[in-house]
Amino acid sequence: MSPRPVRSMLLATLLALSAGCGAKEVTPSLDLVSASCAGTPPLMGVTHLRFRVSGPGMDAPRDRVSTVRWTAEDVPAIPPGSARVLEVRAYAGAPDRGGQLRSLGRTPPFDVAEGQGTSVRVFLRRLGEFAPANQAVSPDTCAVPREARAGHTATLLQDGRVLLAGGHGLGRDGARPVSGTTEVFDPREGMFSSGPDVGARAFHTASLLPDGKVLLVGGAESLEQVSLQRTARVVDVAAGEASTLDPKVARYQHSVAMDAEGRVLLVGGRSADGRAVSTPEGFHAGRGQFFDVPTQVPRVDAVVTATRDGRTLLVAGGANEAGLQAGILGFVFDQVTFSPSSLTGAQLKVPRVGASVAMLGLTEEVPRPLVMGGLDGVDPVKGARSVGSSEFLEGVALASTGPVLFPRSNACAVSLADGRVVVLGGQGIESGTPRATAWAELIIPVKDGQPVVLGLPLLPQPRAGLSCTALADGSVLVVGGVDDTSGEPRAPIEALVLMPHPRD
What we know:
By secondary structure, the protein is mostly beta strands. Helices cover 0% and strands 38% of the residues. It has a domain at 7-124.
């Protein structure tokens, strides 16, 4: 029996049911987007669907199984409360009889008020495949960014949208024109829209501030003959505005992290002549001001990250004129500025530049920053090789060995809400020259054990300088980058979405 048309819209009537405490539950109006604009259709080979409702305060998730010809009654009623999630799993064969999970979709967490109806949308996506993002209003139409970008930033906003800012494109004769535009991706609609201008900048940094605005700092406004963007912008996406601030130091290719109170630490980077910037700088979100950090940190291509409690910011890796730096530095805000932590002594087991960092693990798994990949020297032409090892930062005083990964530098690494980490793209070394890679990996934390690394399908096209953003539905949005693996470099314009297999 063939399934219904792949995009179904059910406007279910409100069901008032008696719960143990007398609260009224509701069955949501579910818009299940089960078409795709390219790649494997999410319902190909699917015979059954499982609907699952979960959230805080519920004794157990509520499940219902139907055939692919589902109706409104197949969707479980949702008790009132916050952070409810409706998940749809698609199987080839009945799930209780060994059916294989093929596709998955879930809502972002949403609130349900007693006795009030709610409408939700779920994009059903083929598991483990990189598929172009599609539009909700026309699911067989791909959602395409307005510009091809590399060396840009992508920031997940508090409302679940993603702000893409700056970066460079590819022009004629190898030119790399720098962009000053922004655009916003709305995963609920599958659409890109224009945002405010932020001044031409590439290889800058972006930080989501506690009030929901985004701080963009530095970057290069020209790459042919490098000139630096000397301004910072605070972007208010909701208002469509960007205000201008003046950092104390101009830099690009720098690193940034924010502590638990919204104070931002900027470290390293390069000046216009390519030299390392030694002067750190801070930004206080509450005061809206930059401030001096007197401790010199002459490092290029280091990583900066927060400890799991957010109180200490760690600087690891990087290089200066003396070569690779193995020491791990810690900074703590002392009510005036960031000062060096009194705990010192940790060293990376493998000094590296161009590494990536992401938090691995949930609370019960002891989440820790994981430093991944990089180069074991500053110049591939002089023999620097890609690093395949990773290391956990156990605070300022210790680093421990992590899992073995594909050897590459400047990969895009992102933490998922379930504690796992996805690592995509980046650069490998080919005959002494960095080249974009298509590698993709999923790192799974294990309580009291070494993480498990699973190889994911390759990206459809190698990408370096890409962004990857963990969306609220558990998927990963991949945008931009450059493919320089054959002949003239190419800039992939397609925005891809990856839905990893669930942990359970």
